[in-house]
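Sample intake sheet
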Amino acid sequence: MNQEKAKARPLVSVVIGSDSDLPVVAPGLELLEDWGVPFEVKILSAHRTPREAADFARTAAERGLKVIIAAAGMAAHLPGVLAAYTQLPVIGVPIASGQLQGVDALYSIVQMPPGIPVASVGINAGRNAVILAVQILSLTDPTWQDKLEMYRKKQRETVLDKNARLQECGFKAYLSGK
């Protein structure tokens, strides 16, 4: 990422409830870096730092943020708490943890009360959360539309290459890596 982009005010904030959530969101952070999207990463807890989480969300828009991604496991209150204090879109990433391996977090994120929506991606789907955030950014900035178009084109080419290899060698050789 060039220094000019690195110094830009963040458009996306990725907030994790614990540093143990960082590996889940890391692939998405790498995508933000690759695409040159200005972003920040914060550790805030809905339960252990509620005042700081609320202050962060209250001031997010005035600091220039456009989208918040909030990742949390178990009760996963973080996305909802942030959404309660901002009008910005909040995307929740349920983290696989605890006895239910993220199902409880998924339910917590998607079952928000009326008037305080949180978008949700699948369990541990930090990369999809980033793509959704960039789709939101692309509504007002064609720069991000171009990034999304190139990403989809690369995905298409990858699938077609794999299909060609499968057709050429058959499923057994494909599975064995020959």
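Comment: Strands lie at 12-16, 39-43, 67-73, 90-95, 119-120. Residues 142-169 form the longest helix (28 residues).
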